[in-house]
């Protein structure tokens, strides 16, 4: 079970996009995450009419290390650390370290 999952709202904590908030689009096995609108780069794409790809310069998101993002807490409006807790019924849930409130509903 990962502390940050696809679809989570996160805040970038370091780097050129520090402070940006976005949704996790993908979690890679290498310990990296792709965040919507963060770590944008320009890529030169070669045209390929067989696949319907138009050539030119495109902007795309590149992976960030998972340690450089923090889960967004809507109650405090900040990025916070996440831990795990076992509930009485045996379920394992994610909780915010600062307040102890459950992330997953």
Structural write-up:
There is one protein chain. The chain has 105 residues and is mainly β. It has strands at 9-12, 21-27, 32-35, 40-45, 56-61, 64-65, 69-73, 78-80, 82-86, 92-96. It has a single domain, classed as SH3 type barrels, CATH 2.30.30.30. It contains no helices and 10 strands. The strands form 3 sheets. The protein has a 6-stranded antiparallel sheet with strand order 6-3-2-1-7-8, with no helix packed on it.
Note the main attributes of this structure.
105 residues; mainly beta; SH3 type barrels; six-stranded antiparallel beta sheet; two-stranded antiparallel ribbon; 10 strands
Short précis:
The protein has 105 residues and is mainly beta. The protein has strands at 9-12, 21-27, 32-35, 40-45, 56-61, 64-65, 69-73, 78-80, 82-86, 92-96.
Number of domains: 1
Q: Helix and strand succession?
A: EEEEEEEEEE
Number of H/I helices: 0
Structure class: mainly beta
- What's the helical proportion of residues? under 10%
Unreliable spans are none
Distance between the termini: 16 Å
Please tally the β strands and state the result.
10
User: In order across it, which strands form the biggest sheet?
Assistant: 6-3-2-1-7-8
**What's the alpha carbon Rg, rounded to whole Å?**
17 Å
CATH fold field value: SH3 type barrels
Q: Could you give a short account of the major beta sheet?
A: 6 strands, antiparallel
**Arithmetic mean pLDDT:** 92
Q: Which CATH architecture is right?
A: Roll
How large is the share of residues in beta strands? 35-45%
Instruction: Indicate the overall shape.
Output: elongated
Q: Mind telling me the CATH class?
A: Mainly Beta
């Amino acid at each position: 079970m990962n502390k940050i999952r696809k679809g989570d709202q996160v805040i970038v904590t370091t780097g050129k996009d520090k402070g940006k908030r976005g949704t996790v689009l993908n979690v890679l096995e290498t310990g990296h995450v792709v965040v919507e609108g963060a770590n944008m780069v320009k890529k030169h794409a070669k045209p390929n009419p067989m696949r319907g790809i138009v050539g030119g310069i495109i902007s795309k998101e590149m992976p960030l290390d998972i340690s450089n993002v923090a889960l967004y807490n809507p109650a405090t409006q900040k990025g916070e650390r996440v831990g795990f807790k076992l509930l009485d019924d045996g379920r394992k849930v994610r909780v915010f370290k600062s307040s102890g409130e459950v992330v997953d509903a």
